[in-house]
Amino acid sequence: MSRRWIVHAVLLTGGLIMIMPFVWQLVVSLQTVTESMRVPPTPAPSWQWHNFADVFRTVPLGRQFLNTVIVTAAVTAGQLLLCSLAAFAFARLEFPGRGLIFLLFLAVLMVPGELFLLPRYEIMQGLGWLNTLQALIAPGVFGAFGTFLLRQFFKTLPRELDEAARLDGANPLQIYWWIMLPLVRPGLLALGLLTVMWSWSSLLWPLVVNTDPEMMTLSAGLASLRGQYLTNYPILFAGSVVASLPVIVLFVVMQRQLIAGIAFTGSKG
Question: ABC transmembrane type-1 domain spans which residues (predicted)?
Fold first, then answer.
């Protein structure tokens, strides 16, 4: 019994440490500029609720929120479709060089994403897509990690399903869509949630490719609130609270599916 209390105490302490940044973010968002810059810090808010209205007047936060929703939805849909197709091919179809090609896919995960910034920017510039939403969507609709994640799910399904479907006259695309895809729903949910969280908080690429505030996402728009000499931290943190809430709510609601989906990927290599 004492061991259980120790474990719970350790977990509770770790949880409190992890949520402290979010609590401090909320506290500062309700302070004045002077209070936010005091040393030592002021631990209590002065309830400056107008900071949340001011952030909408400072930057086009509503438009940026809509941009983020559109980009996140499109990237997530692309990841689920394209990664599941590639994962199905690597897991269920036999073709020459399958193992080598898959290893090359995984090798992409070892390359820092910053190395792709310049080539991607030149491609978007050549297409005339700078300061557009498609420049934010196109590079994220496919990924090696999503392919690997879903491949692990497809490999857990028995081969008899493919054989039975072929005997009934189904082609590979029909097997993928009508039989395999519904059976890997936990993996699709896990990949979808991870993609939503990644796309929603993506900062570097949106800052590089879009300079028009009307075409920015929330993360890039909030980054523009940082001044060279002075930053209005209450307004910046108020915008951060608004931007963080949808993802936090989504994670709290879907955390069981996310954890179960990721844990299940290791059941078969």
Answer: 65-254
Q: How many residues does the chain have?
A: 269
* Backbone dihedral angles phi then psi of residue 41, each to the nearest 5 degrees: -65, 150
User: What are 124-161's pLDDT values in tens digits?
Assistant: 999 999 999 999 999 999 989 999 999 988 998 998 99
What CA–CA distance (Å, rounded) separates 75 from 143? Answer: 10
Q: For 164-210, write each residue's pLDDT tens digit.
A: 999 989 999 999 999 999 999 988 998 999 999 999 999 999 999 99
| Rounded-to-integer distance, Cα 65 and Cα 82, Å | 26
Number of structural domains, the chain? 2
Note the pTM of the prediction, 2 decimals. 0.89
Domain annotation covers residue 53:
no
**Domain housing 81:** 59-267
Closest CA to 187 of 51, 35, 83: 83
From CA 262, how far away is CA 264, in angstroms rounded? 5
Our CA angle for 156, 157, 159, nearest 5°, is 120
Beta carbons of 145 and 110 less than 8 angstroms apart? no
